[in-house]
Each structure stands twice: as C-alpha cells, then as structure tokens.
Amino acid sequence: MSNKQFFSAQIVADVLSISKRNVDAWSKNGKLTPALDPTVHNEPYSRTQLEQYPEFKAMFNSSWDLERKTKPSKSYALMELFSGAGGLAIGLERAGFKNELISDKDKDCCATLRKNRPNWNILKDDICNIDFSGYKGNIHLLTGGFPCQPFSYAGKQLGFEDARGTAFFEFARAVKEVQPSCFLIENVKGLSTSNNGETVKTIISIMQSLGYTIIENHVYKSLFYKVPQKRERLIIIGIKNNLAKHARYERPSPFSSVMTVKDALRCGVLYDADVPLSEGQCYAKRKKEIFEHVPQGGYWRDLPIELQKEYMMTSFYLGGGKTGIARRLAWDEPSLTLTCSPAQKQTDRCHPEETRPLTIREYARIQTFPDDWLFAGSISSQYKQIGNAVPVNLAEAIGLSIVRMLNELQKGH
Questions:
Q1: Known catalytic residue: 340?
Q2: Count of helix runs (H) and strand runs (E) in the chain
C-alpha cells in the first residue's frame, strides 16, 4: 500500500482521464481545493481530498500485492497468435501460463522470442497457413492482438464466413479449431469506437456464434497497473458457454500509486538499478538545437514563436493541438504512449533532460520489459517491436485475474 500523501495536478488529470486545464479550473472554482500552495508546491492535492474519486480510492485500497500471490491450481496451457516481441507472453508467463504455441509472421519478432525463450514452441508463419486442429481441447487460453482492418460490410449482419480475408477471421478460425476454455483479444483503444462501435459489435457477435460468452470488454489504462505510461488497450475476454455460468472474471486491482518516467529509468520501485546503456536514434543537428528550447513536459507550443514556425512549417497555421510534436517527457509523470519510433516528427519522445530520443532500453523499461529481455533486428525494428507491445505488467495483472477465474472453475469440477 502506498503512503504517498500528495499528488500533482498532472497526475490527478491522468488518473481521472481529464486535462490538466480541467484540474486547474476545478482548483479555481472550488471543486478541488489545493491543500498546499500550487505556486510553491508542485504536488498540492492531498490524498484525503482525492479519496472522493473512485479511481483514487481503488489505488489507495489496492489489493495488488495480495493478487501477486495467485498461483495456478493446475497447469494452464497458452496459445498466442500475432505475438510481436512478447510483452503479452512474458506477462502471461509470469501469471503462471505455460506457452504451448506462440506465432508471428515477422522474422525479427520471432528472432526476439527465440533469443529469450529458446524452449518455447515458436512458429514463424502467416496465420492463414497454420492448422490448429491438433490443439483442439488442449488450450486453456488463446490470445491475439490481430491487426484490425475495418470491416467493409457496414449495416449487414456479419457472420463468421463474411469476415474472411481479415486477420480477425483467422483468429476466430483458430478459436473455432482449438476450442480453448477462454480467449483474450487485445487491441488499440481506437478499435472500441471504430465505425461507431460496429466493429467491436461484429467481433463480439462472431465470437458468440462460435459458442463463447463475452465476460470482459473494456479499455484498460496501463498507468493503473504499475506501468509508467499513459497507454490504453482494449481487452475483450470470452469463455466457453458451458463454463460461463460458473465463471467470474474480476478486473485486476490497480497498483497503489502511479509510476513515472523517473520510476522507469532510475533505481526504485520498478527496477533495482538505473537503466542500462543501450543504442538509440539521434536527432539531426538543427532538430537538436530546436529541442534544446523545449522544457521538461513541454512540446512545440513551448518554443519561442520563431522556432515554432520554423519547426512546424505550414502546420503552424493549421488548427488542432498536434500535442505529440516536439514532445519532451517529464521525470515526474508517466510517459506518453510509446509509438513505433521516438524520433519521427509526429511521435517525438525526447528524454526529460538530455536532448535525444529515448534509447532502446529506456523504451523497453517504459513498457516494463525486464532488462534481460533482448531484442533482435535493426534499431528501427527494435523500437517498432517495443512500441507495438502490450506492457508486461499490464499483461501480468490481467493474466492473474484469468488464472483466478480458472482456479475457481477447477474447484467446481
């Protein structure tokens, strides 16, 4: 349980999913009165005040440590498709699942998995070519973060066969052939609102037609689960109809505090040493000169006006926030969502103090990969693998919730 007593406006905003401007407005209108002078203290909001909000109350009454004691009551078999570099797989392994098959068609992702887990059954192939029928009835959890092409049959009642040609169809085919006890779909937050929510409705209706009851459909905020990042992921979990009546899935308890970039890169709660040195991309000379003027936690609008115009060029005159551009992270906040490259103009992720993009190991730590998890391929491929991953600590937390559910089902048999 965290004994932290005061919180910054930015952390309050991140936890409550509002803007810092909102928190400042609440402070002015009396909805949330700072306990300390915000002009003197950078953490003016007290724990006592924040207990009124369910998000903070859940953190202050966290069962995180208790949930870490969960152990599988038998060996639970895992199959993972579209695995990427293994963020989800490591988390589920920590939760107690035994990996029976892990697959991806990307050669660098598979090389990364082989480098770290030579004993896993790693299959480099397009999912279209894989026959899953040999695993029928032997898998407890089948997972996949398929790339989601939008369905182009708006307004029609889509069935399993109509989804053919999409990556989702292949995932659904795997579920149909394997008949796992339960499945987990993870995807970008945007999928939940794609095509006005119709895409998710279609996915759910097809999984239901295959004999599964949906027990979870929720966007998880990583920062609640001991991840120093504002990343959000859609999680959909289904369980076989014949098990659904006795199945109880409960979302994992949030961690007792919010992890920051400092927690990721320095010795402390998350890691027992400072981040190891590693390779990373560099800025071009002029870009570095401009970035020198961006303050910690700032972005292009914090530059002098002439540099704003030079850096943004014609975009300077267009509307929209473009808040990811020329972005320098802050030590005392969670990182922005990591992307596939920390040095591209739209997705800059600059170190809080040094004027450079985050390195490979810094990237990996913000995704809560262990320091001994090594990545294969070029620097740009490694960034991409890490940027696409599910944060390990989030995966473990969800995995432990699934293990608890499966343990309860075991008791009933």
A1: no
A2: 16, 9
